[in-house]
Amino acid sequence: MDEDTQSSDGCESDSTASDSATIHFQRAYDWSVTPPSIAAVSALATVTGIDPTELAAELEITLHEYVDPDALDALVGDQQSEEVTVSFTIDRYRIRFEGDELVVHSQDR
User: Fold this and answer.
1) 37, containing H or E segment
2) Is 98 helix (H, G, I), strand (E, B) or coil?
3) Measured between alpha carbons, how far is residue 54 from residues 20, 40, 68, 97 in Å?
4) What kind and span of H or E run contains 86?
């Protein structure tokens, strides 16, 4: 697993995203080791500074309110020869899976 891509303030601008979006988390994963649903929760916890076990209580949301975790794991984790891209929004964060990479952007309101 590669290191997070973050600046000293925890954020890095994304030149490919709109001016109103900021990358807060970017990491490559081996999906055979880390299920995508677990990676999404861990990344969101890292970005928000909330312990993953307290995320649902603190944000008053759960992953399955936005996406089926089993379907996400199957779709992203079972990639064979083709790269799959999946993205969805949780609260004000855009979660994007592209191949072996997970990126979390904030969506300014």
Assistant:
1) helix 36-48
2) strand
3) 28, 14, 20, 23
4) strand 85-90
